[in-house]
Design a protein that fits this description.
The protein is 33% helix and 26% strand. It is an alpha/beta fold and 145 residues long.
Length: 145
C-alpha cells in the first residue's frame, strides 16, 4: 500500500482518524439499537477483531462509550469506563448530535471529562447521528516518577 493510499484511508475511516490501531482490545459500553453500526464495523476492521462488551473481565486498550442525555450521570459513566482501560488509554465518548434525541451539551461533556480526570484530545463527527470526543486518561506511571 502506498503512502497516498494510507492517507486516503485516514480521511475516510473514522476509526483511523480517532486513533484506533490494529491489535487493540476495544471495549464497548452503552450499546443499544441506536448506535452507528458503520462506525462499529470501521473500528472492528481497523483493530482486526470484534469489540468486547461490558462483561469483558480484562483490561482493554481503549473504550467506546455510547452516551445519551437520559443514560444517567456522565461523570460516573466516564469514571467507570476508566476502570476498564489501561493507563494512558483512550475513551471514545459518542453522544447524539445537536437536535437528536439524547443530545448532550458540549459544556456537560467538558465538565464531566475534567471531573473524571480525563483530557479531551479530539472531537469529530463520526456519523449522521453521532459526535465523538476522544478523551485520554492521564499516564499516572510517568507522573509518579
Amino acid at each position: 500500500m502506498s503512502a497516498t493510499a494510507d492517507h486516503a484511508e485516514e480521511r475516510t475511516s473514522p476509526a483511523v482518524r480517532l486513533g484506533f490501531q490494529p491489535g487493540q482490545v476495544v471495549q464497548e459500553i452503552g450499546y443499544d439499537d441506536d448506535v452507528d453500526q458503520e462506525l462499529r464495523e470501521s473500528i472492528e476492521e481497523v483493530i482486526g477483531s470484534d469489540l468486547v462488551d461490558e462483561d469483558y473481565d480484562d483490561v482493554a486498550d481503549a473504550a467506546v462509550l455510547w452516551f445519551r442525555d437520559d443514560d444517567g450521570d456522565l461523570t460516573d459513566a466516564l469514571v467507570d469506563a476508566t476502570t476498564y482501560i489501561e493507563e494512558g488509554g483512550a475513551i471514545l465518548l459518542l453522544t447524539p448530535k445537536t437536535g437528536r434525541a439524547g443530545y448532550v451539551e458540549p459544556s456537560d461533556i467538558s465538565e464531566a471529562a475534567t471531573t473524571a480526570g480525563l483530557s479531551a484530545s479530539k472531537s469529530v463527527s463520526v456519523g449522521k447521528d453521532w459526535s465523538g470526543s476522544r478523551l485520554v486518561t492521564p499516564k499516572a506511571a510517568k507522573s509518579k516518577k
